[in-house]
Design a protein that fits this description.
It is built from twelve helices and eleven strands. The protein is α/β, with parallel strands linked by helices. The termini are far apart.
Length: 267
C-alpha cells in the first residue's frame, strides 16, 4: 500500500493535473467509477489507483485483469484525487488522438466548431450534448481549454470516448474544407437577423460556437455562411455557451432525425 505523498506514483499523478505535463507525457487521468468503466478497450491504461476503502468493499480483480492496480491509503488517495468527494478510483490512460488529416468529412455531416472556449464545464457539457445528438465530430480552435482538463472530462460523463474531437484546429482551413463538401457553416451570433428555428439544418451543417466573453472573432464570422440567433425575450443579453449549443443541436435533431408528423402527435 502506498502511504506517502512523496511516492513517485503520487508525484506522477499530481503532475498530470497540469496541462503541460499531460501534453508532454501524452497521458490523462480518468476519475470515478462510472467514468473508469467507460474507458474503451482500445485505450491503453497504464495503471489504476484505488483507495484502501475502495479495495475493501469492491472486487478489484476486474481492474487487475486490464492493468496494474496500486492501492493508496485513504489520506493519500484524497491528496491525488481531483474531486472533493472522491469515489476512490482513478485510471491513468494514454491519449488516443486521431490525426485531422486522417478524418474524412461527410457531405451530410453534422459538426461543431468551437473558437477559444474557456470554461471546462461548458466544453464538457457541449461534448456530452453533441454525443447525445449523434454529432459526427467536434473541432476545437487553438486557445480552447484543454480537452483533458479533469473538469472537462468529468462534464463529458464518458462522451469523450464516443465522438471524434480535434484540438488546436485552424478553423479557417477547417471551414474551407467543409465548404468543399457542401457543408453549411452556421454561427450563433447576436447580430444575426435569422432565428435558428426558421433555418434548414437537414443537409450537411456545422455550428460555430464562440468564446464565452468575446463571442466569435470577426475573421471567423466572415467565413460563415449564415448567422443565426436564439430569441432573447427577457432581460438577459445572451445564453451560456453550452445551453445555446444544446438548443441549436436539438433543432437539427428535430429536423434531421425525427419524422415531422410524429413530433407533435402526442402533444
Amino acid at each position: 500500500m502506498i502511504e506517502s505523498i512523496q511516492n513517485k506514483l503520487v508525484k506522477k499523478i499530481k503532475a498530470l493535473q497540469q496541462r503541460k505535463n499531460r501534453e508532454k507525457e501524452g497521458l490523462f487521468i480518468v476519475e470515478g467509477v462510472r467514468f473508469v468503466q467507460e474507458i474503451p478497450t482500445n485505450y491503453t491504461i497504464l495503471f489504476y489507483a484505488v483507495s484502501d476503502t475502495f479495495q475493501k468493499i469492491n472486487d478489484i480483480s476486474v481492474y487487475e485483469n486490464k492493468s496494474q492496480v496500486f492501492i493508496f491509503s485513504d489520506d493519500v488517495f484524497c491528496a491525488i484525487a481531483d474531486t472533493q468527494h472522491t469515489q476512490g478510483i482513478l485510471a491513468v490512460c494514454q491519449k488516443k488522438e486521431i490525426k485531422l488529416s486522417h478524418f474524412e468529412l461527410k457531405e451530410n455531416g453534422f459538426y461543431i466548431l468551437i473558437e477559444e472556449i474557456q470554461d471546462p464545464g461548458n466544453l464538457g457539457t457541449i461534448i456530452r450534448t453533441a454525443d447525445a445528438c449523434n454529432v459526427d465530430a467536434i473541432f476545437l480552435s487553438k486557445g480552447c481549454v484543454d480537452l483533458y482538463n479533469t473538469k472537462v472530462l468529468r462534464s463529458t460523463m464518458g462522451s469523450l470516448f464516443h465522438i471524434p474531437i480535434f484540438s488546436d484546429v485552424n478553423l479557417e482551413e477547417c471551414i474551407d474544407n467543409m465548404k468543399q463538401k457542401n457543408i453549411t457553416i452556421f454561427a450563433a451570433h447576436l447580430k444575426a437577423k435569422q432565428y435558428y428555428y426558421t433555418t434548414d439544418f437537414k443537409k450537411g451543417c456545422a455550428f460555430l460556437i464562440g468564446n464565452e466573453g468575446k463571442g466569435i472573432s470577426d475573421i471567423i464570422t466572415k467565413r460563415c455562411d449564415k448567422l443565426i440567433k436564439i430569441p432573447m425575450i427577457g432581460q438577459a443579453e445572451s445564453l451560456n455557451a453550452s445551453v445555446a449549443t444544446g438548443i441549436l443541436l436539438y433543432e437539427a435533431v428535430r429536423q434531421r432525425l425525427m419524422p415531422e408528423r410524429k413530433m407533435y402527435e402526442n402533444i
